[in-house]
Amino acid sequence: KMDDDDDDIPQLSSHTLAALQEFYLEQQQREGMKTSQGFNQYSIGSIEEDWQLSQFWYSDETASCLAKEAVLAAGKGGRIACVSAPSVYQKLKEQDGEDFSVCILEYDRRFSVYGEEFIFYDYNHPLDLPENLLPHSFDIVIADPPYLSEECLQKTAETIKYLTKGKILLCTGAVMEEQAAKHLGVKMCKFIPKHSRNLANEFRCYVNYASGLD
User: Fold this and answer.
1) Which of 26, 59, 111, 126 could form a disulfide with 158 if both were Cys (CB 3.0 to 4.6 A apart)?
2) One matching Pfam family, short form (predicted)?
3) Hey, what domains does the chain have and what are their CATH numbers?
4) Mean pLDDT, to the nearest integer, of 113-129?
């Protein structure tokens, strides 16, 4: 006799299954196109989202807007850190030749293709950073904590405060407004970030300086 617990295992509907298969097929086709065309490694989508790592890329328009804001906030010759915000990093790298430098702190080691600018980062160990990453050495830190929990935000906030000279641009859920103010002293902007795939949670941007996002 099968265990009664088996009844609790969620079954995917045939419609969901078909959609999933279609998604994976598209993914394989995109991978195939990339290898044949010599794709731009910095373009958004060159590394696919991994939902198991709670990754959701911004829409192209949102990534461009946030990258532009980061460059303006950093100023000429400024340094920008992207913490768990790879699609903004990729947009910044598309602006090759601009007068700023950028690095990406990310848990997903696929981003190590970006060489020395990639820094492995696990929010559970917020200050476990390379020695050459000096405190308060970035003009602006843009961060998108992977989970909508106070613990994740609090730990990511430690990293942000260690890295930034002062300016912070945080992207997280609207439900985190109170915690964002508490841990980072940031306020919600009018600008509403969008993702390439719609998320169930309302997303917002928060800053602690006079930004162009209002």
Assistant:
1) 126
2) N6-adenineMlase
3) 61-149+156-186 (3.40.50.150)
4) 95
